[in-house]
Amino acid sequence: MFNFSWFGYIVGVAAALVAVPWAIAGLGFTGAGITAGSIAAWMMSFYGGAVPAGGIVAVLQSIGAGGKLLAKSTVAHYGGKIGEKLARFFANANHAEKEEK
After folding, report:
1. Which segments of the chain does DSSP mark as H helices, in order?
2. I need a labelling partner for 98 at 20 to 30 A (CA). Which of 1, 55, 70, 80 fits?
3. pTM, whole model, 2 decimals?
């Protein structure tokens, strides 16, 4: 029988690694820096332009610029876990539906 949990995990990792950087870039955290007029610029304005190292703005900018391997691996892991749970749910729902017939 096909192992849906591994398939779901892989799909979840791929989706998370595409969706999260895309969403972060959409907030204005890009490889070229923080986009003027964006949510990222608004967040940065709270610090008066001097963002503390390790703060949320710094971490999001690092991810948006393509850095923070640890953050990306964490996103991939949790994306994979969510995908795995969804695959198991749909596989079990499909199995239960077949048993009712």
Report:
1. 4-27, 39-45, 56-64, 69-100
2. 80
3. 0.58
